[in-house]
Amino acid sequence: MKELIIFVVVALSSLFILGYSIHMLIGGLVSPQTEKISIITAVVIGAVLIVFLGLDILRQRRKR
């Protein structure tokens, strides 16, 4: 259970840092609408990847 809490905290903070890094990279260079779309796209892709990593962890633990 402790691992799940840690995993969720790390996942949320990673998504926040991903979105903020996109903001810092392209903020001011493109229109605000394009920036929002880029941040949302990156965060959604990151969330999907984190879900796949979580599912892989669950599969590995069930094999043991």
Short description:
Helices cover 89% and strands 0% of the residues.
Helix-strand layout with pairing:
Blueprint: H1 2-26, H2 32-63
- How does the helix and strand content classify structurally? mainly alpha
Largest β sheet strand count, sense and barrel closure: none
Averaged pLDDT: 93
Any idea what the radius of gyration is?
Answer: 15 Å
Poorly predicted regions? none
Order of helices and strands: HH
Q: Level of helix content?
A: over 70%
Q: How many DSSP helices?
A: 2
Morphology: elongated
Could you describe the 3D structure shown?
With 64 residues, the protein is mainly α. It has one domain (2-63). Helices cover 89% and strands 0% of the residues. It contains two helices and no strands. It has helices at residues 2-26, 32-63. The chain is elongated, with a radius of gyration of 15 Å.
Question: Any key phrases for this structure?
Answer:
64 residues; 0% strand; mainly alpha
